[in-house]
């Protein structure tokens, strides 16, 4: 869910039966403030927190392969540890993810063997395991 007042998240948690939620945040402190608020709200309404995902965790230059932590490093990892929530993985900052998603062609479908797809699949496996599903 997008950051904000939490009204949307609260309404969904009251009107839909949820197996749990995944908290997604970028690693910078200001984003983690909203992630903490969302986590606490879901805890108050007894919705299980399945884990946290660190979005836009790392940018790898497509030309020189230099790695840069544009939004900070490991903020979600530290927050998940502090809050006692499982850390599910990282999603890198990559133009392909954005471009393909905007076209309605997720990277896990269009480039299933790519590094980015593997990141999503590893997170999906963890989430599926937590809700009792198997990954084929």
From TrEMBL:
<dbReference type="GO" id="GO:0005524">
    <property type="term" value="F:ATP binding"/>
</dbReference>
<dbReference type="InterPro" id="IPR044304">
    <property type="entry name" value="NUBPL-like"/>
</dbReference>
<dbReference type="GO" id="GO:0051539">
    <property type="term" value="F:4 iron, 4 sulfur cluster binding"/>
</dbReference>
<keyword id="KW-0547">Nucleotide-binding</keyword>
<dbReference type="InterPro" id="IPR033756">
    <property type="entry name" value="YlxH/NBP35"/>
</dbReference>
<dbReference type="GO" id="GO:0016226">
    <property type="term" value="P:iron-sulfur cluster assembly"/>
</dbReference>
<keyword id="KW-0067">ATP-binding</keyword>
<dbReference type="InterPro" id="IPR027417">
    <property type="entry name" value="P-loop_NTPase"/>
</dbReference>
<dbReference type="Pfam" id="PF10609">
    <property type="entry name" value="ParA"/>
</dbReference>
<dbReference type="GO" id="GO:0032981">
    <property type="term" value="P:mitochondrial respiratory chain complex I assembly"/>
</dbReference>
<dbReference type="GO" id="GO:0005739">
    <property type="term" value="C:mitochondrion"/>
</dbReference>
<protein>
    <recommendedName>
        <fullName>Iron-sulfur protein NUBPL</fullName>
    </recommendedName>
</protein>
